[in-house]
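Our consortium's second objective concerns turning raw sequence data into structural hypotheses that experimental partners can test. To show how far this objective has progressed, the report includes one record in full. It was chosen at random from the queue rather than selected for favorable results. The single chain below, 543 residues long, was entered without modification.
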Amino acid sequence: MKLKNKFFIGISALFLSMTILSCDNFLDQPPKDLLPSDGFYQTASQAEQGVIGVYSDLRYVSDYEYLMMSECRSDNAWVEPRTNGQRDYSDIGTFRATSSLGTFESTWNAWYKVIYDANVALQKIPKTSFTNADFQKQLLGELHFLRGWAYFELVRLYGNVPMITTPLTPAEANATPQTKGLDIINQLVIPDLQQAQTLPGRGEILNAQAVPVPSEGRADCVAANAMLARVYMTLAGYPFNDPTAIAKAKICLNTVLTKKSDYWAPTIEEWRKQWTPAYANKYSIFAIQYRTGGNGNPAIFDFSPALPPSYTTVRIFGNQIYIDKSLRYEFDKVYSSGSKDLRGEEWSILDGYSAEPNFPAYSNTKESVTVDGATTTQYVNSMFYKFMPSKHKLASLSMTLDESSLKDYNDWPVNFPVLRIEDMMLLNSEILIQEGKIADALDAVNEIRQRAGCDLVPTDVDAATALNYVKRERRIELMGEGVRWFDEVRYGTWKQNTIDKFNRYNNPVGTAISDVSDGRYIYPIPENQMNIKPGTYVQNTGY
């Protein structure tokens, strides 16, 4: 049985519902979908089911955070500045969003549900009867990974948030004040992830019967080191600016990169296949797992356009979320081989399609854009296509998908990558540049580009040029994966990049550079949270 199926079959025994309601406050009350924990966690099997249940809380993260609050906010995407209707992605992308926006509440609730459920399990599992102490230790390590990751995301998104490490009553939770984000990272995130570093590796994760199970959807020691490297690199950048974090990140990265061959797609064909249901993100260090039947990836609906029947029989309505012109420019370059970037057209981006019966052609337009001093014309309405397992894409890879298994338009069985080896390679390149090892740093860039059929970058360049090569490659390789906005923040370029983006589109109605104010590199504490007990929280600057 595939891991993702095991996850969700197991979850059904523990959880009555997986719905995350934006109107509910997860600090105010425990999740209603949990069976009473007093009668649970009595055996190793029940403990495992409880841990798998925490993984299930991740379902909406790909949509809420990684698409809406990262890609739409970043210079990877241009969202139509709609001034009416419920268009959260538009308000986020144009910096008009206020604390009342539903996505902010939903994301807050999603991560605090992970935390609540992890805290329950962390309290119960040490008291559970185990015949295999290593298995008990493994489950605890997985929980520490999940809780540490959850708090890391909350700090990146909201800054100062309540730090809760045990299951609390509603009254206790409501009385818990904010803790400084840096303190949360140092006091909880890093210690949790350090505990997760003791986890087994790929192929060594056990189930309750002491049988190894596939580990792509479960935290292991490599995932823990990769996430910890991401944490340290965040600390090294804006707004924390901690130079001591670089050396700590390097230790984690070196550990991860010793396993590079396990996670590197050796050919462009393999790279393309990893975004399909059958491959289940084969090369991801850690990916959120999805399957059909009501447990699919809801982000596919938002990432993808309204597609004609030849692409999919499942109706997708689509949103006005497009590839930024400056990123689209990178996929339009013709290299010495005569080809364009093999990660691009018909794979990561979609420029349009022909008319079909009862379905009009998708028309795209071109506008001028200046990138790196060169002015060209680029499509302005190209769409994210990376995660969409269309009939066309699957057929070209000799794969199929039984779309009749999909419950609805947001039920796609496409896993979402959270940590990939290319991310780690390029983070390491940033450190190597600081060390003056420019050629070594750009070797990683060129390895990624060579696989994609792109011309290689020169390695006899200065540090600033080399760093720009690394930043550009991160933007291209990791597009659509919720990385870019957080990169812009830690580079300290988020504000200028956003202003430049607005200017590229001539600042249409619904955008205002004045909205891109200091402090808005993080999001507001959701309004409902502020209103639970007025005076408990301090709202973030700029809101």
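The partners drew two points from this record. The longest strand covers residues 366-371. The chain has a mean pLDDT of 91. Both points have been shared with the crystallography group to help prioritize constructs.
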